[in-house]
Amino acid sequence: MPAILTVDPRSGVPIYLQIIEQVKRSVALGALTPGEQLPTVKQLALDLTVNPNTVARAYRDLEHDGVIETASGRGSFVRAGNGAANVSLAAGRDVAREGIDAALREAKSLGLQRSDVAHLVELSLTRWFPEDV
Fold first, then answer.
1. Coil, helix or strand for 80?
2. 74 by DSSP, 3-state: which?
3. pLDDT digits over 84-105, tens only?
4. pLDDT tens digits, one per residue of 26-39
5. Bridge pairing between strands 75-78 and 68-71
6. pLDDT band at 23 (very low <50, low <70, confident <90, very high)
7. What span, in angstroms and rounded, lies between the C-alpha atoms of 39 and 1?
8. How many Cα atoms sit within 13 Å of 73 on the Cβ side?
9. Do residues 88 and 28 touch, judged by C-beta distance below 8 A?
10. What are the structural domains of the chain?
11. Which of 77, 2, 4, 3 shows the shortest CA–CA distance to 47?
């Protein structure tokens, strides 16, 4: 596995969600490749100084989301096979959606109206995807 995952217990984001997001981001960016083995639950828990149940929950959720697969007695691996490219795309979408959700929560907390937010999103889309205009 590339650079060790990191967690921030003071961030307000549950640790298992931080692990999920980082694994999905690594898959989306190709830092974790199809078939690559992840650390064992015990090893990652030791590396991150967290409860093994936290890592196990993250791995269960990643397996449920189709990002990883677990083989009893062998460990957990980034999903490979026919759907591997789709896993990377789906992981990227999940990470992007989480970022968009965070931005929308911030906009709402600032008291912006839906029409204001829609306008800001449209401006950003034009800026970042000018070829689609």
1. coil
2. coil
3. 667 778 888 888 888 899 899 9
4. 998 889 999 999 99
5. antiparallel
6. very high
7. 7
8. 0
9. yes
10. 15-107 (1.10.10.10)
11. 4
The span from the CA of 20 to the CA of 129, in Å, is 28
Alpha-carbon distance 41 to 71, whole Å? 13
- The length of the chain in residues reads 133
State residue 80's pLDDT score.
Answer: 83
Indicate the residue type of 60: R
Structure tokens at 17: 């969600």
Q: How far apart are CA 55 and CA 68, in angstroms?
A: 13
Residue 107 CA to residue 43 CA, distance in Å, equals 39
pLDDT of residue 48: 95
DSSP codes, 20-64: HHHHHHHHHTTSS-TTPBPPPHHHHHHHHT--HHHHHHHHHHHHH
Nearest to 88 by CA among 30, 39, 21, 37: 30
Quote the tokens at residue 37.
């083995």
Element (H, E) at 76: strand 75-78
